[in-house]
Amino acid sequence: MKKSDMLSQITSSGIKALAISAAMFLMIGCDSEIEEGVMKSDLKKDIELTTDYGVIVFRLSDETPLHRNNMIKLVNQGFYDSLLFHRVVNNFLVQTGDPRTRGLGGDEEVSNEDLNYTVPAEFNETLFHKRGAINAARSDNPARASSSTQFTIIQGRVHTDSTLAVAEARINGWLAANRVANNPANKELYDLQQELRRRRSADSLSVVRKTIDSLVQADLAATPPYRIPEGHREVYKTSGGAPHLDQNYTVFGEVISGMEVVDKICATQVAGTESPSEDIRIISARMIKRGN
Fold first, then answer.
1. Where is 227: in which H helix or E strand?
2. How many domains does the chain have?
3. Are 231 and 127 in contact (CB under 8 A)?
4. Which residue range is the domain that position 17 belongs to?
């Protein structure tokens, strides 16, 4: 080979190597960390739960970025690996995410714990509790802030106009209760309720609760009621879901495959506490590349 040809080949190889290196650098550079534990590429991935009963895949919503990022971070940490589905209600939901279930058996008491923070509520009119919805569990708090770790998968059931009317009544009752609880004028009343609960003063607590109930009823009478949107009603009447949870719990994703696994978990026998009689665990949770 001529010296000039050899130099040309070396130069060409070097340029190709530089081009490949540059492309790799750009790819790495583009995959930046948008917050601790969450990479930009994670936003284009789904979550795969491998359970004792099969695989469930769900997609997080970009309309609820606080819940989306919190879930991604926990999955990347391996937080959900080996946790139990500790609550099962057939024709309603399955619940998981309690960190203390990692070492428990299904016949032991579940603590209903999570990590020491909450996620602010994120309500979006396009997200509702249809069959397959992923929603955040939460404690009873006026801000409707979500648990840091616990979530449910909605199985639900098919509804009629009459059962949807019942659901609307429950939704409006909760909305009124939240408005009353969040009114600064009622803070002393709610503080007193908490103190009486602590003291276990049943008689005085009953009087305070009646006062709060009257405020809730007055709010209901003065506020235009929430109505389930027509599009949501059609889904509830065909595919099913749990409409009474709307406006009260944050929906932040939905199952895209594996609802037959959810149905199988829901059908399992339970103890009186709604805990499955046999252990059903998340073997692993991981981020996976989205399919077409």
1. none
2. 1
3. no
4. 1-30
> For each of the chain's 292 residues, which pLDDT tens digit applies?
554 554 455 345 554 544 444 444 444 457 899 899 999 999 999 999 999 999 999 999 999 999 999 999 999 999 999 999 999 999 999 999 999 998 765 455 555 567 889 999 999 999 999 999 999 999 989 899 999 999 999 999 999 999 999 999 999 999 999 999 999 999 999 999 999 999 999 999 999 999 999 999 999 999 999 999 999 999 999 999 999 999 999 999 999 999 999 999 999 999 888 999 999 999 999 999 997 6
Q: How many residues does the chain have?
A: 292
Find out whether 240 and 158 touch, Cβ atoms under 8 Å.
Answer: yes
Unique residue bearing structure tokens 């603590």:
111
Of 286, 171, 186, nearest in space to 229 by CA: 171
- DSSP conformation class of 197: H
Tell me, yes or no, whether 20 lies in a domain: yes
Is 22 a domain residue? yes
Q: Do the domain assignments include residue 59?
A: no
Q: Is residue 141 situated within a structural domain? A: no
H-helix or E-strand containing 171? helix 161-182
d(CA 97, CA 115): 10
SS3 label, residue 80? coil
Residue 58 near residue 22 (C-beta atoms within 8 A):
no
- The H or E element that residue 232 is part of is helix 230-238
Query: CA-CA distance, 262 to 132, in Å (whole number)?
Result: 9
